[in-house]
UniProtKB/TrEMBL annotation:
Family of the protein in this entry: Belongs to the GlnD family.
GN (gene name): glnD
Functional note: Modifies, by uridylylation and deuridylylation, the PII regulatory proteins (GlnB and homologs), in response to the nitrogen status of the cell that GlnD senses through the glutamine level. Under low glutamine levels, catalyzes the conversion of the PII proteins and UTP to PII-UMP and PPi, while under higher glutamine levels, GlnD hydrolyzes PII-UMP to PII and UMP (deuridylylation). Thus, controls uridylylation state and activity of the PII proteins, and plays an important role in the regulation of nitrogen metabolism.
Reaction catalysis annotation: [protein-PII]-uridylyl-L-tyrosine + H2O = [protein-PII]-L-tyrosine + UMP + H(+); [protein-PII]-L-tyrosine + UTP = [protein-PII]-uridylyl-L-tyrosine + diphosphate
Annotated CDD domains: ACT_ACR-UUR-like_2, ACT_UUR-like_1, HDc, NT_GlnE_GlnD_like
SUPFAM superfamilies named in the record: ACT-like, HD-domain/PDEase-like, Nucleotidyltransferase, Nucleotidyltransferase substrate binding subunit/domain
Name of the featured protein: Bifunctional uridylyltransferase/uridylyl-removing enzyme
Domain HD residues, every copy: 438-560
Organism: Paenalcaligenes hermetiae
Regulation of its activity: Uridylyltransferase (UTase) activity is inhibited by glutamine, while glutamine activates uridylyl-removing (UR) activity.
Species lineage: Bacteria, Pseudomonadati, Pseudomonadota, Betaproteobacteria, Burkholderiales
Length: 855
């Protein structure tokens, strides 16, 4: 009983000490002090515990890992090593088990290992993470001599070059796990690129190389300048505090800046805004700036350490000119102080790196010099014709454009050369479909444009690759990409403001009138092609004619197509699919025909489609009378709204089905098999669209496009384009099963929602819940009698389309067509509907309220 009481007192004492330390942190948030105090209190508790639950004689209790370097975060595991002189006997094993059990009893979440020195060396040899943790071993209590023997053995075992290469490989693997970007929406402040682990790896390597185990000691070893020491010390303290705040906020070992925590963290840090979204964007922009600083210092110091370890002495040199040389396959600036006299060398360095295929990178000294020289880039620098020519030359190179821009952004050179770019560095977009900060999205767009020039990506983007190959001066597109979102976050129309910035840039760099006009057009209209393709009916000749008039030239059209594809793919990897690719390529092809002089009227188009479709159907030995009977139940709008190949597809499936007693369902793949098109032919009824949507929800099919058509004899001929679940690809067996299930369902519709509340409960993502977008409902009359256009913008959720269809059915709104545009977690849907009642004000308001209640 006394032992249990002692453990209780020990637990209470530790809890009081922890609470007091955290309260002191709240009054004055000094991160290192808190971490050291928590570590010290844990040391004291463990020492006292060994008196209550003794460990084997001649053993040592050792702190390792983060606890070993006295950085114990509020809810982190306490990493301990019980070091033994020899393998434990049964009695010793029992004593160790009692000690470890007591750790949990007093509230210490321990990550423990029990090893002899030989076993420690074996574990270090097998696992680089274990070796790293043991290198930070710190004595707590027990046999001090045994601990010193371990330290000596670990030092003797350590092979510095092998350790460096292993840590470098580990870092690259970790970075790849986090998509090689510090700019994730929910970054991990411990493990993401540019986070705490990137700082720790520098300290580990410096310690292994005998260069010091603190930033001050590394600076004394001439590896950090005073400015760099200040920057890295500030960044380290900032990340420490952030990790502490996350632990305290979540009350667990949470290192991710989840959407749920961002608004509250913004409040803790004192960021304000009109709403929690703006405040959290300020928080995240500050985070990304700090992460970029860490990324900069990690890049420079890792390269510096690598050169110390691996570069041959004396270095292998090859002169380039009076300022640069190749040193060990890296571009080296001989005298960094020359940058003050010749600031053009800043841009010339990037140009040389592009032009010399034998160069692997900048030398560490050159990287550091370029980073420090960023402050030379001011208005006077930007106005120099030589500097303008060099910047354009960087964009005009056949290789290395993206690498150069990424490096320039990382070193804060790009934001200084284009001051407007500075505002979008780390600028988060809580619009539910962008997954990158604005600056990273911009660079992703340029990456995609560059890929259109490479043969290995030609199969992924055949039309884009073909157009880029024929496009003169593709660097014009890179400038448009740099400016297309540059005004995000300023308020107002970002395309209009960005076009003004682009015009000023073009005039300052003395671009030709034709190139200037194209760049400004692209920036101002960079959203227009995707909007027409995804929100308008591009089978309508008037839509194509209006778009062709707006674009006006084939070069503009090609440029807009290339930028649009690159932009969509650079927004969110999950929103690009074969259907979007087909819509854009179809819009390009149809518009190009008009621009080249092919402008038939609706009557000519109708005649052409029917003639082409008839020829293809007759070639398949389908009877002409069957085709005529089928087409008799179609009106002119059917032939104007469906392309020839779709008319042929319908004819193949339906030429014997006019009086078929059961529904007809056909499927076919679209693109590479992640998207399918389903045709449904069945007697029409008011709730048909709703039930079809329910079926799609049950089978996790995401509607991309819908065409609702009713024949002259009262049957529905509906066509849907659907995105398959991620794990599913189109196959014949899958298609047959789906067709059979849908046929059965249409005859006996049963939905899991029939007995549920009228509308589905909201199942939005965390992001949509924390940063909701206000739903938008816009209902406008069209020129045709009783026809209305309904536009909806809201956050996506499971069952959303079914819920909307329920509202339509309840109000006897007849859907004629639907454009379903899903952008990540945001939907922008457009419906063309028929209603005999919507023109009545009372009914209109009632329906609008019902629709808003669904959203």
């Amino acid at each position: 009983m006394q032992a249990a009481s002692d453990l209780t007192q020990l637990k209470k004492r530790l809890q009081r000490q922890r609470h007091k330390a955290i309260q002191r942190f709240r009054l004055r948030p000094r991160s290192e002090h808190l971490l050291r105090r928590l570590s010290t209190y844990t040391d004291q508790c463990l020492t006292q515990l060994t008196a209550l639950k003794p460990l084997p004689a001649a053993s040592a209790l050792i702190a390792v890992g983060g606890y070993g370097r006295q950085e114990l975060y509020p809810f982190s595991d306490v990493d301990i090593l019980i070091l033994l002189h020899h393998p434990p006997s049964l009695n010793e094993q029992h004593a160790i088990e009692q000690f470890i059990a007591a750790l949990w009893d007093i509230g210490i979440k321990a990550a423990s290992s029990v090893r002899t020195i030989a076993q420690c060396l074996e574990a270090a040899e097998a696992d680089i993470a274990t070796q790293t943790a043991q290198l930070e071993a710190r004595f707590i209590t027990g046999h001090l001599k045994l601990f010193k023997q371990l330290q000596k053995s670990l030092e003797q075992q350590l092979e510095v070059k092998t350790f460096f290469q292993a840590k470098l490989a580990e870092m690259r693997q970790r970075h790849a796990h986090y998509q090689n970007t510090p700019y994730a929406l929910e970054p991990n402040c411990k493990e993401s690129p540019g986070a705490l682990r990137d700082l720790q790896i520098l300290l580990w390597l410096a310690k292994a190389m005998g260069l010091g185990d603190s930033w001050q000691q590394i600076a004394q070893a001439q590896l950090l300048s005073p400015a760099e020491l200040r920057a890295i010390t500030r960044a380290s303290a900032a990340f420490m505090r952030l990790r502490i705040e996350l632990h305290l906020l979540s009350q667990r070992a949470e290192d991710r800046l989840l959407f749920d925590y961002q608004p509250e963290l913004a409040r803790i840090y004192g960021f304000t805004g009109k709403d929690k979204q703006q405040a959290s964007e300020k928080l995240m922009q500050r985070y990304y700036w700090a992460a970029r600083t860490v990324h900069q210092m990690n890049t420079i110091l890792m390269q510096n350490l690598e050169e110390i370890l691996f570069s041959p002495q004396p270095p292998v040199r090859e002169p380039i000119d009076a300022f640069f040389e190749v040193r060990n396959q890296r571009l080296h600036l001989r005298q960094p102080e020359q940058l003050q006299k010749h600031p053009d060398l800043i841009l010339r360095a990037f140009l040389l790196l592009q032009q010399r295929g034998d160069l692997h990178h900048f030398s560490a000294q050159t990287l550091r010099a370029l980073w420090h020289a960023r402050r030379l880039i001011n208005e006077s620098f930007r106005q120099q014709p030589l500097h303008q020519q060099l910047f354009l030359a960087i964009l005009q190179q056949p290789r290395g454009v993206l690498h150069a821009l990424r490096l320039m952004n990382m070193l804060n050179i790009l934001p200084r050369y284009i001051p407007e770019f500075r505002h979008i560095v780390g600028q988060m977009q809580h619009d539910l479909f962008h997954v990158y900060t604005v600056d990273q999205h911009t660079l992703m767009v340029i990456r995609n444009l560059r890929r259109f020039t490479l043969a290995e990506y030609a199969n992924d983007h055949p039309l884009a690759s073909q157009l880029m190959d024929a496009f003169e001066r593709p660097w014009v597109l890179y400038i448009a990409a740099l400016f297309h979102d540059i005004a995000k976050g300023r308020g107002g129309n970002h395309a209009e403001l960005g076009a003004q910035d682009a015009l000023a840039f073009c005039q300052r760099h003395q671009l030709s009138a034709a190139d200037t006009e194209l760049i400004v057009f692209l920036v101002y209209d960079h959203l227009s092609m995707s909007m027409v393709a995804q929100k308008r009916d591009i089978s309508d000749p008037t839509v194509i004619a209006d778009f062709a008039k707006h674009v006006s030239t084939p070069r503009r059209l090609s440029a807009l197509f290339l930028l649009t594809v690159a932009d969509i793919k650079g927004t969110n990897p999950t929103i690009w699919n074969s259907w979007k690719a087909k819509l854009l390529s179809d819009l390009y092809t149809l518009t190009l025909r008009v621009l080249q002089g092919d402008q038939p009227n609706a009557t000519e188009i109708l005649a052409q489609r029917k003639a082409q479709a008839l020829t293809q159907l007759l070639a398949q030995n389908i009877d002409a009378n069957d085709i005529e009977n089928l087409w008799d139940v179609f009106d002119i709008s059917y032939f104007l709204r469906h392309e020839c190949e779709e008319i042929v597809w319908h004819g193949q499936a339906l030429h014997k089905a006019l009086l078929h007693p059961h529904p007809v369902v056909e499927t076919r793949p679209v693109g590479k098999g992640e998207t399918i098109q389903i045709m449904i032919y069945t007697p029409d009824r008011e709730d048909l669209f709703m039930h079809i949507c329910a079926f799609f929800d049950q089978h996790h099919l995401n509607t991309q496009d819908a065409r609702i058509y009713t024949t002259n004899h009262g049957w529905a001929l509906d066509s849907f384009v659907l995105l398959l679940p991620r794990h599913q690809r189109y196959s014949t067996n899958f298609a047959k099963t789906l067709q059979h299930q849908l046929c059965t369902f249409l005859q006996h519709p049963q939905t899991p929602f029939d007995t549920a509340p009228r509308y589905l409960p909201q199942t939005q993502s965390r992001r949509a819940r924390v940063f909701p977008i206000a739903p938008i409902v816009d209902i406008q009359p069209m020129s045709q009698p009783h026809t209305w256009k309904i536009s909806i913008v809201c956050a996506d959720r499971k069952g959303l389309l079914y819920s909307i269809a329920q509202a339509f059915t309840a109000q006897r709104i007849n859907v004629k067509s639907a454009k379903i545009m899903t952008l990540g977690e945001r939907v922008e849907d457009t419906f063309i509907v028929h209603s005999d009642e919507l023109h009545h004000t009372a009914f209109f308001k009632q329906f609008e309220r019902a629709l808003r209640s669904v959203l």
